[in-house]
Amino acid sequence: MGACKSCSRVILVLINILFSLIGIALLIVGSVVRWGTDLMNQYLSNLYADFIEAIKFDGDLTDFNIADLLGDVTLSFIIIGAFFFIIGILGCIGACCTVRPMLILYVVILSILVLAEVAFVAVLFAAQSKFDEWLKKPFQNTLEEYKGIDGPDAVTLGLNFIMTQYDCCGVEGYGDFNASKLWKREFNSSDGNTYNKSIPAVCCANVTDKDCWLHPNTNNSYMDTGCYDAIKDWLYDNMEPLIGTSAGVLAIEIILVIFACVACSKERSNKEDYENDSYGKPVMDDRSYDAIRAYDNQGYRGPHHNRQPYNGYDDRGSYDKRGQRDNRGYQNDVPSRRRDKHY
How many CB atoms neighbour CB 11 within 10 A? Predict the structure, then answer.
């Protein structure tokens, strides 16, 4: 059992050190992206160029801030990173230094996390239609801030990127853009006339096809392909690696809970083994502990047996009827008032 405890502690320490390092990395990335805009712009200039080309952007990105585009993502990185770091510290110190309260807190947090993950998966499959509605609503609300292909704000750039990458239009179709009050539909044609766009340019197979802007159909555009279903199809196509990764994470969490329980329970068992004998009975009662302390304070210790002091030890012994020294009083811890009695 001692080997099992040592193995559990080593595994806990190693895995939680990894958790702490992952947490630190996520904290650094999230903080730099959120508050280090100048630094990010310096190192991501080539990525910006690829992004602009991907969404066929023809506007001005002088005031573009990547933190605005990834605001919620960076906040998620910071929160998740802090969580990983705290969990790693709790598990590492608790296992390395055998701090039982920290191990108990570690087990409680991981157990809650495991139960929450299982409950989330159960709700996802049991009420998928409700879950779809819950996700579509905020997605549709963002379309109210859409400004078109030339919009420089983070929401517009993000929506243009999604529609370009997944060949889709709106959340459920082009009709969703009727709620886009900031989208400038008017444009000047080469014939000198002003027309209104029927769909955003990024919903067209060719974003410069003005005929598609005015007269879209399923051949020259993605007008009926919603981005929500397109992203959902992509997730289904990559379901196996996602399920494998999720199952692996869940298995690691369960294993960590088991190892932490083993380390925690064994620490308690060792203490009980020290205070109790092989039959589970206390080795010394409170009176015996008081006697040892009294002898220590007097600078004198009497002989001990089974960790118990001899009561009334005075270097005298009684003799039985055959004249032999009788030490049973000392060996069996017989009270002093019976020690001189012959048997």
Answer: 17
Could you tell me how far CA 156 lies from the centroid of its own chain?
Answer: 31
Are the C-beta atoms of residues 168 and 139 closer than 8 Å to each other? no
Q: Which residues contact 208 (CB under 8 A, 6 or more apart)?
A: 56, 201
Q: What is the pLDDT along the chain (343 residues), one digit of tens a residue?
A: 567 778 888 889 999 999 999 999 999 988 887 776 666 666 655 655 666 665 555 555 555 555 556 666 788 889 999 999 999 999 999 888 888 889 999 999 999 999 999 998 888 777 777 778 888 888 888 888 888 887 777 788 888 888 988 999 999 999 999 888 888 888 877 777 888 888 998 899 888 888 888 889 989 999 999 999 999 888 888 888 888 888 998 999 999 999 988 887 754 444 444 455 444 455 555 556 566 566 555 554 445 444 444 444 444 444 444 444 444 444 444 444 444 444 4
Contact 67, 35 (CB under 8 A): yes
Q: Exposed/middle/buried for 133, CB within 10 Å: 0-12, 13-18, 19+? A: exposed
